[in-house]
């Protein structure tokens, strides 16, 4: 258990800035809001950037692949996740399906908690059964995509070229996800070859779950403080 404390401390120290970087702001937001017509590469780049700086998305993916040992299983779960978030991203913005961004991101943070808890054997120990992770990953993929949609909805996108720009953004998200996933897989594969993996896997998932709770707390605080401001 003592091995978990450095990882938990790292979560507390490093979490705030990636959470803030996850939003589309600054020059990126100004460009998106002012864009008229189809701009493939800028939106593709923004999608990729949004994914590789999205702590919540990356932590969830890390939890999903943490104990997957076959490449076909990795491909299956990542595909289910991608289908889920692509559906709500591409449908949410044009159909103007809205929800409070803080609450959506709180659900996304909870997805991190859920997967880490699952990796720790929590469901089997407490409830005596294992959830169908295919349904869980696809379902949370819908929430993650809706989170992406809320970020774009806040920017009041111009309807001229909207569909094409959304597709470009989503393709960028997929490429960013693939790059991040590749890096995580290589690190995990190297980690699994060490004797320390068995001893530190518990601590790592405890750290992931703690980060998920912090994400939920951050978003709920933003929702309630925003409501009372």
What features would you describe in this structure?
- The chain has helices at 4-14, 16-21, 26-34, 40-52, 55-65, 71-92, 101-119, 122-127, 133-153, 162-192, 197-228.
- Helix 1 runs parallel beside helix 11, helix 4 (40-52) packs parallel to helix 10 and helix 5 (55-65) packs parallel to helix 7.
- The chain has 11 helices and no strands.
- With 229 residues, it is an all-alpha fold.
- Helix content is 79%, strand content 0%.
- The chain has one domain (4-222).
Brief overview:
This protein is mainly α and 229 residues long. The protein has helices at residues 4-14, 16-21, 26-34, 40-52, 55-65, 71-92, 101-119, 122-127, 133-153, 162-192, 197-228.
Task: Give the secondary structure arrangement, pairings included.
Elements: H1 4-14, H2 16-21, H3 26-34, H4 40-52, H5 55-65, H6 71-92, H7 101-119, H8 122-127, H9 133-153, H10 162-192, H11 197-228
Helix pairs in contact: 1-11, 4-10, 5-7, 5-10, 6-9, 6-10, 7-9, 7-11
Low-confidence stretches: 1-14, 16-21
Task: Give the overall silhouette.
Answer: globular
**What does the radius of gyration come to?**
18 Å
User: What is the number of strand segments?
Assistant: 0
- End-to-end distance, in Å? 41 Å
Q: How do the helices and strands follow one another from N- to C-terminus? A: HHHHHHHHHHH
Strand fraction equals under 5%
Structural class: mainly alpha
């Amino acid at each position: 258990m003592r091995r978990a404390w450095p990882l938990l401390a790292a979560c507390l120290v490093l979490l705030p800035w990636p959470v803030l970087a996850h939003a589309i702001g600054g020059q990126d937001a100004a460009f998106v809001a002012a864009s008229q017509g189809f701009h493939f590469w800028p939106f593709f780049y923004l999608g990729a950037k949004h994914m590789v700086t999205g702590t919540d998305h990356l932590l969830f993916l890390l939890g999903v692949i943490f104990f997957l040992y076959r490449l076909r299983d990795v491909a299956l779960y990542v595909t289910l996740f991608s289908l889920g978030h692509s559906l709500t991203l591409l449908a949410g913005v044009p159909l103007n399906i809205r929800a409070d961004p803080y609450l959506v991101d709180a659900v996304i943070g909870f997805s991190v908690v859920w997967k880490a808890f699952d990796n720790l054997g929590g469901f089997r120990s407490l409830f005596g059964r294992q959830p169908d992770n295919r349904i869980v990953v696809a379902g949370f993929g819908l929430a993650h995509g809706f989170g992406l949609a809320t970020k774009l909805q806040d920017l009041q996108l111009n309807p001229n070229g909207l569909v094409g720009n959304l597709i470009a953004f989503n393709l960028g998200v997929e490429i960013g996800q693939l790059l991040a996933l590749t890096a995580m897989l290589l690190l995990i594969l190297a980690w699994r070859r060490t004797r320390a993996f068995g001893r530190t896997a518990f601590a790592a998932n405890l750290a992931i779950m703690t980060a998920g709770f912090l994400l939920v707390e951050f978003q709920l605080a933003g929702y309630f403080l925003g409501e009372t401001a």
